[in-house]
Design goal:
562 residues, alpha/beta, TIM Barrel, Rossmann fold, 6-stranded parallel sheet, 21 helices, 19 strands
Length: 562
């Protein structure tokens, strides 16, 4: 069989079993016939999908025999045959050849973590054991070791090693820092905590580099099993470039995904030097960038495969201020973990959450979960409190979060005589519980990318009052899933809150629609999009000039917003 016979689409077959654990031969026959009848170009029994490591020798042979019988010579059959015992793998390969398969797919030895020389000698022995073509299978996420390019070059010199199934991908996320001074609730940090553990670990090895000092907060990403390297560099440290380049080479990075000015500057320089794909991910809309950042962005734009923006306004900022070409800039919305925020909550759970926040029975809790930073506009929420409380004395306001403006906001509340009617809870680890305790959620933002908390509030079906900050109106629709008012206008903000309090039917309708909107923004869906993008970049960016990704269909990145 020649390698070009494997052009097209092949199916890695599952191995069906009966309830008692025996091979389901009838089910397997039907599966193979279905694949052949539907026009699949080749079949792969006993691969990873076929659970080959748990099949005994006779089960393995029987699966291959049935596949050959039902394929009836219409399509090639490439049998999986691999393991970490070279002698046994050679015996298995010889048996597969005696059964009449067309080729062998052999996974790299797993668990033992052999050296590159050990991997080469293993495959040389396997190839020598058969006259069939052998396809090398590299899947570091499962085997624990990666077949390096130099080893593949050596293996390519063996006549019957004809190809490689490449399932590796060392994805390195790079960020400037993991928190703002005085705040543990940094959006990008929360995004990493949701996102990185959800990648398919059998296909992607995703790690994180922070250019700043080690995260010393009470809540670290390491708790989620995330591999984090802290560079400990200051903002303008020229030593960041060589130090980062060394770390990336040690990690054998395949793709860089970068967040923040420093990360996208030093990271893209490294990607340029290493000849690997790079993704600029913009999360904010700062209006403009410093002159020195413009110089860096202009230099590095031709060496950036794609830019991702979290909202339409952020996309415009990315092209206007960060100088990325519009054709390379794609808006990809984030989301929240729907399994955490959209699940039904019992009355007892909500009662416990409200009690933990000091919300008394009969109280209407209005609040926001936020960073206490200038962009969030929390001073306007404090300003509206007297107006709302005058009309609705059983209301209490809650500002959940921390940040640099907390002393000023607390002083503002004292000056207004709000006392215990406006509570600064500080940092709360369980955001979902805090959100469940609120009856109405307010986003008084002045400018935004798109805050993660709006996806959380939508998923939980909370009545929402928000300003018309760009990143909010990207996902919210006035009088459908939220009431939207002009930003920096306390009078109109108070009016919208009072209107919802006085119109329970409207609040209920907004809540219902909010859940529907929130269902479109699942962080798991975002991760699947990134996995597909990484795969395309791995292939397309081999085209000179980084033009390859522009020739692929990227419509999968879009989200149906209305």
């Amino acid at each position: 069989m020649e390698l070009n016979q494997l052009r097209g689409c092949g199916t890695a077959l599952v191995t069906p079993f009966q309830a008692g654990g025996a091979l389901d031969a009838h089910g397997l026959r039907g599966l193979v016939r279905r694949q052949v009848d539907e026009g699949i170009e080749f079949l792969v029994p006993c691969g990873t999908t076929g659970e080959s490591p748990v099949l005994d020798a006779e089960e393995h042979a029987r699966v291959v025999e049935i596949t050959l019988e039902e394929a009836r010579g219409k399509v090639p059959v490439i049998a999986g045959a691999g393991g970490n015992n070279t002698r046994r793998v050679c015996e298995q390969v010889r048996r597969m050849e005696s059964l009449g398969v067309d080729g062998i797919l052999s996974v790299s030895p797993y668990y033992n973590k052999p050296t590159q020389e050990g991997i080469f000698q293993h495959y040389r022995a396997v190839a020598k054991a058969t006259t069939l073509p052998v396809i090398v299978y590299n899947v570091p996420g499962r085997t624990g070791s990666n077949i390096e390019p130099a080893t593949l070059v050596r293996l390519a010199e063996i006549p019957n090693i004809l190809g490689v199934k490449e399932a590796s991908g060392n994805i390195v996320q790079i960020c400037d820092h993991l928190g703002w001074p005085g705040s543990r609730m940094h959006g990008v940090k929360r995004l990493f905590a949701w996102m990185i553990p959800r990648f398919d670990q059998s296909r992607f090895n995703v790690s994180l580099i922070s250019l700043r000092k080690k995260d010393l907060s009470a809540d670290t990403l390491e708790e989620f099993g995330i591999d984090v390297t802290y560079m400990g560099r200051h903002k303008f440290d020229p030593g960041t470039y060589p130090a980062l380049l060394k770390v990336l080479r040690d990690r054998k990075a395949d793709i860089l995904h970068m967040h923040g000015y420093g990360a996208t500057t030093f990271g893209r320089l490294c990607a340029w030097r290493m000849g690997i794909p790079s993704i600029l991910h913009e999360h904010a809309n700062h209006g403009n960038t410093p002159w020195f950042q413009k110089i860096a962005d202009k230099l590095l734009a031709p060496h950036t495969d794609i830019a991702i923006a979290v909202s339409e306004s952020t996309g415009k900022f990315t092209t206007r201020a960060r100088l990325m070409p519009a054709e390379r800039t794609k808006v990809v919305y984030l989301g929240a973990p729907l399994d955490e925020f959209a699940r039904p909550r019992s009355a007892d759970e909500i009662a416990v959450a409200r009690s933990a926040m000091g919300i008394l029975p009969g109280t209407t809790a209005i609040g926001t979960i936020t960073r206490l930073m200038p962009s969030k506009g929390n001073q306007y929420l404090v300003d509206v409190a007297p107006n709302v409380l005058a009309a609705h004395p059983r209301v209490r306001f809650f500002i959940v979060g921390e940040g640099e403006l907390q002393p000023a906001l607390e002083a503002q509340a004292r000056a207004l005589g709000l006392g215990d009617r406006l509570v600064f809870t500080g940092y709360m680890r369980d955001v979902a519980a805090a959100l469940s305790a609120l009856d109405l959620v307010v986003f008084p933002s002045l400018w935004e990318g798109t805050p993660l908390t709006v996806f959380e509030a939508l998923a939980m079906g909370k009545p929402i009052v928000a300003t018309d900050a760009d990143g909010l109106v990207d996902v919210l629709t006035d009088r459908k899933d939220a009431l939207i008012v002009p930003k920096a206008n306390a009078e109109l903000l108070a009016g919208a809150i009072n209107h919802l309090l006085e119109t329970p039917a409207l609040a209920a309708a907004l809540s219902t629609e909010a859940r529907k909107t929130g269902a479109r923004y699942d962080i798991a869906a975002f991760v699947r999009k990134m996995e597909r993008l990484y795969e395309l970049l791995h292939e397309a960016s081999r085209v000179p000039g980084r033009a390859g990704i522009l020739k692929t269909d990227l419509s999968f990145l879009a989200t149906e917003r209305r």
